[in-house]
């Protein structure tokens, strides 16, 4: 069915298509027809982060920034859905147009800039969701006008509000679309910020009687030395997990495209190689007890398997849905299942 809808969606501006696609998904879910259009993967229980995931394939943050479509997205067969990035106060994001498709590359460039309705609106949406069939991650960030020296307060504000509702929480310090945000990945800044948030995580765990895992999402554009420094900090502070990676500012794979000069983060197939290299390097430098979620460029089941082979315990996708539709979820789960059932080639992920 997505093959029929795609020409209509691609006739729209990319951001308009984003909204139209979510509205159509929600309508199909509420009318009970979504199941007719999607093939559900069979159960593939996967235990990571002390959590039991129905399967190891999740939706990356960015599609549902306000947590308004959690149930419909879970109904596509995802083992988990990550919503956000959400900030303390509502913000409009960057001026439009700010999303661009590169179809021949199966890629998207976006410079949305954490456009969202604020953390209180997200909390209300999450509280209304039924959340059947999968787990929920909530991705948090800072407001655009908050200077980096005050960033911890923004992250703390969001952390405290989403903590009781999330199965896990992601600290986003790697979007290229908020000026200066990636500077928080520098070793000293990272140690100070994550140290503060780790202390808050332990306090909130005692307050709420449950420990919610906290992950850090990193950029694909880090140098090898930067990756090593990030790994040292995250290992020293015993973070629960890492998501590798966010979008890239590199355009070397799409230089001939008319949109190559657009500012923002590039996602989709051209990101697969670099993102997976970062994932593999981080896996060799982090303790095994810190799991990795592989994201970036997954447009096929083979890509999902490659992320697992590089050291991921779970995978996420987003831009692949734009080009492949919901069938990609089933394809990825089943590809990982086939790989996992071949013991001679080694396990793909802890289960």
From TrEMBL:
Enzyme class, first EC level, given as a word? oxidoreductase
Question: Signal sequence span per UniProt?
Answer: none
Residues reported in the UniProt entry to bind FMN: 61-65, 85, 139, 172, 217, 245, 268, 297, 318-319
This protein is called what? Answer: Dihydroorotate dehydrogenase (quinone)
Q: Which residues lie in coiled coils?
A: none
Q: What is the recorded function of this protein according to its Swiss-Prot or TrEMBL entry?
A: Catalyzes the conversion of dihydroorotate to orotate with quinone as electron acceptor.
Q: Where is the active site?
A: 175 (nucleophile)
Q: Do you know which InterPro entries this protein is assigned to?
A: Aldolase_TIM, DHO_dehydrogenase, Dihydroorotate_DH_1_2, Dihydroorotate_DH_2, Dihydroorotate_DH_cat, Dihydroorotate_DH_CS
Cofactor remark = Binds 1 FMN per subunit.
Identify the Pfam families for this entry: DHO_dh
Q: Subunit structure, briefly? A: Monomer.
Q: Describe the reaction catalysed, as an equation.
A: (S)-dihydroorotate + a quinone = orotate + a quinol
Query: Which coenzyme or cofactor does it need?
Result: FMN
Report membrane topology: Peripheral membrane protein
Supply the alphabetized keyword list. Answer: Cell membrane, Flavoprotein, FMN, Membrane, Oxidoreductase, Pyrimidine biosynthesis
Q: In which pathway does it act?
A: Pyrimidine metabolism; UMP biosynthesis via de novo pathway; orotate from (S)-dihydroorotate (quinone route): step 1/1
CDD domains named in the record: DHOD_2_like
EC id: 1.3.5.2
Record's SUPFAM superfamilies? Answer: FMN-linked oxidoreductases
The compartments listed are: Cell membrane; Membrane
NCBIfam families registered for this protein in UniProt: PRK05286.1-1, PRK05286.1-2, PRK05286.1-4, PRK05286.2-5, pyrD_sub2
What are the binding positions for substrate in this chain? 65, 110-114, 172, 177, 246-247
Entry's family note: Belongs to the dihydroorotate dehydrogenase family. Type 2 subfamily.
Segments forming domain Dihydroorotate dehydrogenase catalytic: 46-336
> What PROSITE patterns is this protein classified in?
DHODEHASE_1, DHODEHASE_2
């Amino acid at each position: 069915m997505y093959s029929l809808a795609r020409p209509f969606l691609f006739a729209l501006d990319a951001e308009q298509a984003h909204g139209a696609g979510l509205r159509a998904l929600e309508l199909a879910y509420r009318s009970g027809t979504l199941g007719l259009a999607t093939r559900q993967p069979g159960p593939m229980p996967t235990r990571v982060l002390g959590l039991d995931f129905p399967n190891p394939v999740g939706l990356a943050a960015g599609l549902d920034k306000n947590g308004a479509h959690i149930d419909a997205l879970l109904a596509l067969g995802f083992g988990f859905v990550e919503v956000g990035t959400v900030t303390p106060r509502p913000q409009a994001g960057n001026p439009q147009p700010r999303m661009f498709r590169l179809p021949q590359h199966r890629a998207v460039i976006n410079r949305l800039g954490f456009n969202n309705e604020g953390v209180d609106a997200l909390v209300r949406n999450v509280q209304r969701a039924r959340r059947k069939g999968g787990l929920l991650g909530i991705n948090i960030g800072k407001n655009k006008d908050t200077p980096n020296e005050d960033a911890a307060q923004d992250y703390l504000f969001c952390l405290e509000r989403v903590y009781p509702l999330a199965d896990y929480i992601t600290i986003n310090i790697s979007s290229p679309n908020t000026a200066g945000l990636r500077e928080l990945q520098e070793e000293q800044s990272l140690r100070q910020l994550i140290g503060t948030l780790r202390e808050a995580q332990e306090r909130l765990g005692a307050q709420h009687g449950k420990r919610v895992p906290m992950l850090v999402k990193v950029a694909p554009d880090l140098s090898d030395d930067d990756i090593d420094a990030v790994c040292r900090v995250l290992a020293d502070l015993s973070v629960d997990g890492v998501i590798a990676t966010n979008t890239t500012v590199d355009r070397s794979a799409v230089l001939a495209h008319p949109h190559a000069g657009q500012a923002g983060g590039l996602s989709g197939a051209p990101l697969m190689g670099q993102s997976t290299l970062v994932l593999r390097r981080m896996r060799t430098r982090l303790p095994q007890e810190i799991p990795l979620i592989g994201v970036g460029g997954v447009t096929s089941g083979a890509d999902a398997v490659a992320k697992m082979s590089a050291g991921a315990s779970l995978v996420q996708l987003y831009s692949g849905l734009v080009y492949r539709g919901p069938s990609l979820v089933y394809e990825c789960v089943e590809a990982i299942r086939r790989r996992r059932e071949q013991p001679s080639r080694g396990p793909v992920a802890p289960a």
